[in-house]
Write a structure and sequence with these properties.
- About 25% of the residues lie in helices and about 15% in strands.
- The chain has 8 helices and 11 strands.
């Protein structure tokens, strides 16, 4: 849904049931262009270079042959991206969908030309039903990750895939069938790097195409994957990046010992919060 026409109850239901929701056009075109220019400057990878491919597609950051670039904790390290964490529209949405006392936790990334093309979770406890992330008997999880995209779908053909409902804690002992399915998804994650299109064979996956300024908000326990991208001129199947400035917020104050709106907790709940991301191909 558009950022100026929010149905918070519906968004909350979508996160509760499917594990994700989508905000279209969270960023304005001017904001998108500004972040693209800043990401080109810090990464050394330009949009025109990506479209040309070959030697023109290169960067100064880490990645495969300079063709992709990532900066862990990039939002915190780069002053130009601080406004992502304090974006009034995003903060207002997360306060209404997660909790009014939302807090930023320092878990963030900036990506260019990169996508994790394997089924995985972003939570601390990634094995289904194992660990405190899956125990909501005393308090709800209340952590979301927010990925903001800067490239057009036409440029990359890249989408973000979700296994809907895979974030919901088990109601009892984890069945053998569920364990086998989880192992199968891990195997597909490894096989994806042999053929990036393998992950597209999951029949119950939802694939989300995005446009510049779109934001995907999801529970980090939800199994997800980036997709293979296709660039006509470069003729490359290298994955496009999915999620750049990534920040963390917690939905209830007792989960975080830090009272500041931007900060991180020293408690065992440090990993619980909301993350923000933006991407550029």
């Amino acid at each position: 849904m558009e950022a100026d026409r929010m149905d918070y109850q519906q968004m909350r239901r979508e996160i509760d049931t499917k594990g994700y929701t989508i905000v279209r056009a969270l960023l304005t075109p001017d904001e998108v262009n500004n972040y693209i220019s800043r990401m080109e400057a810090v990464s050394g990878i330009t949009r025109s270079g990506m479209m040309q491919g070959g030697a023109a597609w290169k960067g100064t950051g880490r990645g495969s042959g300079g063709s992709s670039w990532t900066l862990p904790d990039g939002v915190s390290k780069s002053r130009d991206f601080w406004p992502v964490a304090t974006n009034e529209r995003l903060v207002n949405i997360v306060r209404n969908v997660v909790d009014p006392n939302v807090r930023f936790l320092q878990h963030n990334d900036i990506h260019v030309g990169f996508s994790a093309i394997s089924w995985h979770r972003d939570s601390v406890n990634r094995e289904f039903g194992v660990g405190p992330d899956w125990d909501e008997s005393q308090e709800p999880y209340k952590l979301v990750r927010c990925g903001i995209y800067l490239q057009t779908f036409a440029e990359s053909n890249s989408r973000l895939g979700f296994i809907p409902g895979s974030h919901q804690p088990p109601k009892g002992p984890v069945s053998g069938a569920t364990k086998r399915k989880e192992r199968w998804l891990k195997w597909l994650g490894a096989a994806n790097y042999l053929s990036p299109k393998i992950q597209m064979t999951i029949s119950n996956a939802d694939w989300i195409p995005t446009e510049p300024g779109d934001c995907v908000i999801f529970d980090p326990r939800t199994i997800h994957s980036g997709s293979c991208s296709h660039r006509k001129r470069g003729r490359t199947n290298n994955p496009s990046h999915h999620g750049t400035p990534s920040t963390c917020c917690t939905g209830s104050s007792h989960r975080s010992s830090c009272p500041d709106p931007v900060g991180h907790s020293a408690t065992r709940r440090t990993h619980r919060g909301a993350m923000v991301g933006a991407s550029h191909v």
